[in-house]
Amino acid sequence: MVKRSRKKNVASFFHRKLRSSRRTKLHPVVAPLPLSVAPETPTPSAGAKGAKKKAGSRLWMLFDRSGKSEVIELDKSAIIRRASIPARDLRILGPLFAHSSRIIVRDKALVVNLEFIKAIITADEVLLLDPLRNEVLPFVDQLRRQIFSNPPSKLDDSGNVDEVGRKMSSSVGKWLEDENDEDEHVLPFELQVLDIALEFVCSYLDSTVIDLARNAYPALDELTRNVSTKNLERVRSLKSNLTRLLARVQKVRDEIEHLLDNEDMYQFYLTRNQIQNQQYEALLTPATSKSMVYATNYVRLNSNVRRSSSHASFHLDDNNVEDLEMLLEAYFMQLEGSRNKILSMREYIDDTEDYVNFQLDNQRNELIKLQLVLNIFSFAMGVDSMITGLFGSRVVKNRTLVREIHNVRAQFIDLYYCSCSVCILVEGLLVFVTFIFKLYLMLFERFVFD
């Protein structure tokens, strides 16, 4: 028994050795590397991060109330946090709405998409998209020049609550009336920027209409004098440009008309809303050091301040809404004038079409008249050839006798055969010319005013 157990132990020992050797062959053990050459974990490079950031960011130019400007790169999340607008409002600034005109009003920002001007206007700053485009650069210069020439007053965000409380407790109504009188004839910052944008877009569209009219009227007059392929191509391109320009002017005009029909135009005054919110927060937050002193005044004047501030704000709303209405109506009338110019050019093009159609009808009538004359001439020549052929058949049989007796008649017969050949050639040429002219008229009618 002892021998068997020893044999089993020896066998199990060798079996374990064999299994361990197999394991080492199948899975070789790698010696640990020293700390100096230890493999580093793959980390994303800074270039990859920058590439990811640049993929979602766009180029913006920032203008503040004092006229300072800088070019920065911001992504959608940064724009949403900075301007406090929903993400869906940024879609109208994208390439899908490049040819649309929209002005969206939010609590703290105006989202403006007018032609090539795409901006987000707040009470303190303006964010202009793609400021390095050739169309946007003149607007950037004009915006910088006008903001520097007449900078709006800067808001005091760090106002002392004690001083506000003293002013409120002393003369709330007088303070609000003075503020109303001071800002009665001065547009706030956001409306100044909107005014500059509308002025630039309306002037650009008006100048485009004038340039198109300067090229359109001479081309139409030249077409009435000379109907050619070159003139037709010029008029066709001008008509297509006129249609596209009318659509652009109509979009901006409809958007301004939509704003004029809006009953909540007071929301455009972001600066006023910001001032009112700051005043209301100052009233709701009395001074910590002298809270006991102004507590009774605050409770007493809370209702009076609200009543007087609401009355002043209502009066301010009426004045400012009236100013905004006058501003929008002025640009609406300017766009209406540009639209009338385009419609007058379209009427002139329609008159030119009618005149050219009259010319075509006249040429068609002349062609029909010529074709009728040639048909009559060919019919007469055909009858003559038939009669001469009937008599010439007998003459040919006795041709030697005729030449001896009537040499003149033989010459006449030869002349007749030559005239018949010429008549056949003329008739064939007439058919060819008629076919070419009809083809030209068909192509002309399809090419001119489709």
Automatic annotation (TrEMBL):
Where found in the cell?
Membrane
Task: State the annotated membrane topology for this chain.
Answer: Multi-pass membrane protein
**Annotated Gene Ontology MF terms?**
magnesium ion transmembrane transporter activity
| Pfam families per the UniProt record, alphabetical | MRS2-like
Sequence intervals crossing the membrane:
372-393, 414-441
Q: Name one GO cellular component term.
A: membrane
**Coiled-coil blocks:** 235-262
| Keywords of this entry | Coiled coil, Ion transport, Magnesium, Membrane, Transmembrane, Transmembrane helix, Transport
Q: What does this protein do?
A: Magnesium transporter that may mediate the influx of magnesium.
Please state which protein family the record places this protein in.
Answer: Belongs to the CorA metal ion transporter (MIT) (TC 1.A.35.5) family.
What protein does this entry describe?
Magnesium transporter
